[in-house]
């Protein structure tokens, strides 16, 4: 058989069915007890709010609060799912999770979100030099334009967080 001539793989419907069957076989069934302990959206959102305050030195996240005013469903979904379900999962410490978020947002060019998570990373003990290394790493998968944009954003963040000339701290 020549490479690429197997018609069993070329049939899109058959391929989708094969992939779906494989995925279903790989995912264990949810035990009945797990259904009884599922959190409500309100409980998940509360947990998400706790995550934000832990990342942001006890303060609410301004972008999320602004979103809550005009797009309450989107804010609730962000708080309940992204923060309450995903961000609160075990498996990664806060520091590692923030470095991953900074790298991901920098790589896709979302510098506003990258800045928020870089600030959380600094709050979690990540150094400026470590964040700079993340930007250097972004050049490989995402290219220089995105890395340069991320670098500018980090420079702005570092300047905002440094004590001012009058001796005041941010």
TrEMBL record:
It holds the Pfam family CMD. The keyword Signal applies. Keywords: Signal. One of its GO terms (molecular function) is peroxiredoxin activity. Residues 74-152 form the Carboxymuconolactone decarboxylase-like domain. InterPro entries: 4CMD/NDH-1_regulator, AhpD-like, CMD-like. Residues 1-36 form the signal peptide. PANTHER family: 4-CARBOXYMUCONOLACTONE DECARBOXYLASE FAMILY PROTEIN (PTHR33570), CARBOXYMUCONOLACTONE DECARBOXYLASE-LIKE DOMAIN-CONTAINING PROTEIN (PTHR33570:SF2). This is 4-carboxymuconolactone decarboxylase. It comes from Azospirillum brasilense. The lineage of its organism: Bacteria, Pseudomonadati, Pseudomonadota, Alphaproteobacteria, Rhodospirillales.
């Amino acid at each position: 058989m020549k490479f690429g001539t197997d018609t069993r793989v070329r049939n899109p419907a058959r391929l989708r069915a094969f992939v779906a069957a494989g995925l279903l076989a790989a995912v264990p069934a949810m035990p009945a007890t797990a259904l009884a302990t599922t959190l409500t959206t309100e409980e998940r959102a509360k947990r998400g709010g706790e995550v934000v305050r832990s990342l942001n030195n006890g303060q609410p996240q301004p972008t999320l609060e602004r979103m809550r005013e005009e797009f309450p469903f989107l804010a609730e979904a962000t708080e309940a799912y992204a923060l309450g379900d995903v961000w609160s999962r075990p498996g990664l410490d806060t520091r590692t999770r923030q470095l991953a978020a900074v790298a991901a947002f920098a790589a896709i060019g979302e510098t506003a979100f990258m800045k928020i998570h870089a600030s959380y990373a600094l709050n979690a003990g990540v150094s400026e030099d470590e964040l700079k290394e993340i930007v250097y790493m972004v050049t490989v998968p995402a290219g220089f334009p995105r890395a340069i944009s991320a670098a500018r954003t980090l420079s702005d963040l570092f300047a905002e967080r440094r004590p001012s000339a009058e001796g005041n701290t941010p």
